[in-house]
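Quick question, first post here. What does this chain look like in 3D?
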Amino acid sequence: MEKCAIVTGSSSGLGLEITRSLLEAGYVVFGGSRSGTEVEHENFYDVELDVTSEESVEEFYETIREFTEKVHLVVNNAGICEMSPLSETSSEAFEQHLATNTLGPFLLFRGLEPFLVKDETHVISVLSTAARFGYPNVSAYTASKFGQLGIIESLKKEWKDHRLKFTNLYPGAIDTPLWDKLGTQFSRKKMLKTSDFMAVFDFVVAAPANIQFPEITFLHRDGYLE
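> Answer (accepted):
Ran it through. Tokens below.
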């Protein structure tokens, strides 16, 4: 039986690499993004998705329902990050972070329950060490990730009877094009590579069905950025 996966934020960065990896592993992948994904594969469905929009999320699930009623893997990956001191962070920017990083997962999970496969569906959330540790100059991002973690922890208990697998990934800084936009002076040599992240992700996905990794924190060997 074909296994079906959902990947949010599939158009670039980690989401794009995750999508490619899951297709290679034999999954049918429904990729959700606002801008579309460059992947062309017979088992890939490129579905428009704005995680901040209730209507868009509902339409996303309506499209998936045309092809399947079961989702075996969900990768909660879509997110935004901007850096600025709290005193220079606008209310609009703060709200955008909450809309994407906190409301987005809330809407995604709220529509997911009818597709769950008891004893099988695996929910992987790409969080950040910022979901557990308060970094300076990213108050909006940190608050939104703390909020996302709260939703997930509550959901684990609400969906206990479904006997799902949950994995929260807490990577340190990853060298992606995002850092070009942030304009920071951090050394990219002290960041994880995308391939480092994928090594952990692929390990989690390929693990035996009776094993669960609730939380994995992983950093560059030089530790946290300072």
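Helices lie at 13-24, 54-65, 91-110, 139-158, 178-182, 194-206.
The first strand starts at residue 4 and ends at 8.
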